[in-house]
Design a protein that fits this description.
Length: 768
């Protein structure tokens, strides 16, 4: 009897599963994990500014992953990381770990890792010399945070694989990016420019992930704008505008669950409130709140366990164990010449617009800066540009209806761009054979951009260089005539592709990858394509796919570029833009035919994909991890003044403090220790807690992953073992009235190497 019951149960369960699969095109899984690196002492990656050293957190960085698989077939993995760019050595080591765990299920062929291009994350995690000079060499802690977090986000997505579907939508977003090199864009043929309404791409492409049981579980979108809302002087770790948009969308979904009707009116509403800040407080009067707050004085610093900050984290995974957490990623695409500083570029001294052709003020670049919509407040600019992307993504998410259907597939190849033969088709029908060049950077590279100007007497648009800097260059490595001719009209400042001491200065072997989900094709490129370069690549691939004669693609084909993916090799301009030798052209490493090389190789991948033919893997990139050197001073020890403890309050809130919601600021200073001792991964350095009246417990409502809370760390003197943590909370309009306090978590290192975790809290105060 029991055997018959089990047989019936198995049969019914199988039928139900078959029914589910019959309605599901794919298996889908999403994951997210903290990749916030060292929040102290480490130079930030992006602006190449030696003085831009991390000293706190604006909000945390994450790796967000989706996996799409045929029920019993191929699968693809896409990881979006809140980092300046993907790193070749990080990608190689993540793949090594995945192969050790899953065998050949996940490899360099079907796993793509793309960076959002924030310029406010710790550097030192790339393997080539030119990208780690300002970080004083390789920073193992930055590297480990990325490898660990990316791997864990993929594991989460793998473990969450369930029947589901993917829906795509596209729409126009106008006020979120401007062309920062418009004079170079004008070098493109007029007949080509006339095909487009704008000189930057305004289209956002969004994927909506639907779990058959839970409904919406995530969204990923691609839109082109630089991660430079935060300036070159900012020292707080931040995901910039794209990281902010992800935080807004995930928080919105947390409080507007799948059962909600995603109303049109909400899109024009304010950024959503934290769910945990909406606890009702039954207190009747301001006087009662003040009296209650008076009972809670500052808590002296005390030891805690290592997991204490994780347990108090607002967005703890334990609190949503009953359903998958919603994952929303705002990915980067062809952002090479696109700036979020949409008000334009102006001279600091005169307030007048910068020179159009060279982005200079009085012939010099140092005073020419782009202005974001929140100017002069870069934090406000970050919020506004992030909010604009969030609102557009929400609109596309709510209205998405086109379901992706068809094969899941992929192709990947390694290409040596230092000596790639490229065949160009001329207008007269004849062909011409050209080659790419070993990597080199032009003089205009050192001029920087309007998002972050360079120094000295470098200017954008310089196609000649000058004698003094040539002399400096020649001390390092003088380029030979063949190299100079190959890069013409770029005057070479750094011949990085031929510099190999103490190890390679620049990459040569790059990964090109194509991921397919039905009628969507994701082109993973290891660089920053300009607007027109990206358009040419997308159009060439789309044309190649349509000419394949494959009946599967009788409808619309969607092609997106995933920028800064699987490695980094700086910029890719069109041949015409390269002639202008603005920053982007000077940073196109492999010479004027770089884009043509990409187009040629991606057309080959497209062809092999649709004829179901394998591709030769190409030359393997080097693994330089064992050769890395670092000159970053380690943390030796932390101390406090005599009689004080780690976590003690140095500067408390005033007695009987009462603050208003909307814009009031509360600041507390604590005795602290170097954040490099423990990154507080999936935890927090700072916390705002609200008193629950019923049982007098403190409820976490904001942490260092909220844009309204800033954690700042400093030493009174360089290399001093003494340090302080300043926690600033700008009270949002959405905060609930009640009694609050500020708490700090940290970890201190003794002279003998052991680490002690600690916490401390401020006195209570009232918010009305």
């Amino acid at each position: 009897m029991m055997k018959r019951l089990w047989t019936s149960f198995f049969f019914i369960t199988t039928l139900l599963l078959l029914r589910v699969y019959s309605h599901s095109e794919y298996m889908i899984g999403l994951g997210s994990y903290d990749i916030t690196g060292p929040a102290a002492d480490v130079n930030m990656m992006g602006y190449a500014n030696m003085e831009q050293v991390a000293s706190g957190i604006h909000f945390r960085l994450r790796a967000r992953t989706f996996i799409v698989s045929e029920p019993e077939g191929k699968r693809v993995v896409f990881v979006n990381i809140d980092a300046c760019m993907a790193s070749q050595i990080v990608t190689l080591k993540v793949i090594e770990r995945l192969k050790a765990r899953y065998g050949d299920l996940y490899t360099e062929k079907n796993v793509g890792i793309s960076g959002i291009h924030t310029h406010a994350g710790p550097g030192g995690y790339l393997q080539y010399v030119v990208y780690i000079v300002t970080s004083l060499g390789f920073v193992r802690q930055s590297f480990d945070a990325l490898v660990d977090g990316i791997e864990k986000s993929i594991i989460q997505a793998h473990d969450n694989l369930r029947p589901g579907s993917v829906i795509i939508n596209k729409g126009e977003l106008l006020d979120t990016g401007v062309n920062r090199s418009p004079s170079a864009y004008l070098y493109n043929p007029s007949e080509e420019r006339n095909k487009y309404k704008y000189n930057v791409d305004k289209e956002m492409t969004l994927l909506k992930f639907m779990d058959d049981q839970w409904g919406p579980v995530g969204s990923f979108n691609w839109f082109a704008t630089h991660g430079t809302s935060m300036s070159r002087t900012n020292s707080l770790i931040s995901g910039d505008n794209k990281g902010a948009a992800s935080r807004f969308m995930e928080d919105w979904f947390e409080q507007n669950t799948a059962e909600s009707s995603y109303s049109e009116e909400f899109i024009s509403d304010v950024i959503p409130r934290r769910v945990s800040s909406m606890i009702e407080n039954p207190l009747d009067s301001h006087e009662e709140l003040l009296e209650l707050a008076s009972y809670f004085e500052a808590q002296p610093g005390r030891p805690v366990t290592r997991i204490s900050s994780s347990a108090r984290r607002v967005r703890s995974a334990l609190r949503k164990a009953d359903r998958p957490g919603f994952v929303s990623a705002f990915c980067q695409t062809n952002c090479g010449d696109v700036s979020p500083n949409v008000l334009g570029a102006f001279c600091l001294d005169t307030g007048l617009p910068c020179d159009f052709n060279h982005s200079t003020c009085g012939g010099r670049n140092e005073l020419c800066y782009g202005r974001g919509p929140g100017y002069p407040d870069e934090f406000e600019s970050t919020r506004i540009i992030g909010e604009r992307q969030f609102k557009k993504a929400l609109d596309l998410f709510n209205k998405a209806s086109e379901q992706l259907r068809g094969k899941v597939d992929y192709r990947q190849v390694y290409v040596d761009f230092s000596q790639l033969n490229v065949t160009l088709l001329k207008k007269d029908g004849n062909s011409e054979n050209v080659k790419t060049c070993p990597a080199a950077m032009g003089f205009a590279f050192a001029a920087g951009t309007t998002d972050g100007p360079g120094a000295f007497d470098f200017t954008q648009g310089d196609d000649k260089g000058n004698a003094f800097w040539r002399m400096v260059r020649n001390v390092l490595k003088p380029p030979h005539k063949k190299q100079m001719d190959c890069h013409y009209p770029k005057p070479i400042l750094l011949d990085t592709g031929e510099m190999t001491k103490p190890y390679d200065w620049a990459p040569s072997v790059l990964s090109l990858q194509m991921l397919r989900i039905g009628q969507l094709f994701i082109l993973s490129v290891p660089g920053e394509f300009t607007t027109m370069a990206g358009r040419r690549l997308r159009d060439a691939v789309k044309k190649q796919l349509k000419s394949s004669g494959n009946k599967e693609l009788s409808g619309e084909i969607h092609v997106v570029i995933a920028g800064l993916a699987n490695g980094y090799s700086q910029y890719v301009t069109t041949f015409e833009e390269y002639q202008a030798q603005r920053y982007e052209g000077a940073s196109t490493l492999f010479g004027p035919h770089t884009l043509s090389g990409y187009i040629q190789e991606f057309k080959k991948l497209s062809k092999s994909l649709f004829h179901d033919r394998p591709v030769q893997p190409g030359p393997q990139p080097p693994d330089l991890l064992d050769k890395q050197v670092s000159f970053l001073t380690p943390v030796v020890m932390d101390t406090t003044p005599a009689g004080d403890s780690f976590g003690d309050v140095i500067s408390d809130v005033p007695k009987n403090l009462s603050l208003k919601r909307g814009n009031d600021l509360v600041t507390v200073v604590f005795q602290s220790a170097c954040p490099r001792n423990d990154l507080q991964t999936e935890g927090t350095f700072a916390l705002v807690e609200r008193l629950e009246r019923v049982d007098k417990t403190w409820i976490p409502v904001y942490d260092d992953d909220d844009l309204c809370l800033r954690f700042k760390w400093s030493r009174p003197k360089k290399l001093s073992p003494l340090s302080e943590a300043t926690v600033e909370w700008r009270i949002p309009e959405s905060a609930s009235p009640g009694v609050y306090r500020i708490t700090h978590f940290g970890a201190a290192k003794s002279l003998f190497g052991s680490v002690q975790h600690f916490t401390g809290s401020s006195s209570a105060f009232v918010v009305t």
